[in-house]
Amino acid sequence: MKTQYQRAWLFVTPVLLLVAFNALIPMMTVVNYSVQETFGDNLFFWQGLDWFEQVLRSERFHNALGRQFLFTFLILIIEVPLGVAIALAMPRKGFWVPVCLVTMALPMLIPWNVVGAMWNIFTLPDIGLLGYLMNHTLGIPYDMTQDPVAAWVTIIVMDVWHWTSLVVLLAYAGLVSIPYAYYQAAEIDAASNWAVFRYIQLPKMKTVLTIAILLRFMDSFNIYTEPFVLTGGGPGNSTTLLSIDLVKIALGQFDLGPAAAMSLIYFAITLLASWLFYTLMTKNDNKS
Amino acid sequence: MRLKSLLPAAYILFLMLPIYWLVAMSFKTTNEILAGFSLFPQTWTLANYIEIFTDPTWYWGYINSIIYVTLNTVISVTVSLPAAYAFSRYTFVGDKHLFFWLLTNRMAPAAVFALPFFQLYSAVGLFDTHVAVALAHCLFNVPLAVWILEGFMSGVPKELDETAYVDGYSFPRFFVTIFLPAIKSGVGVAAFFCFMFSWVELLLAKTLTAVEAKPIAAVMTRTASSAGYELGLLAAAGTLTIIPGAIVIYFVRNYIAKGFALGRV
Question: Which residues form the ABC transmembrane type-1 domain (chain A) (predicted)?
Answer without folding.
Answer: 65-277
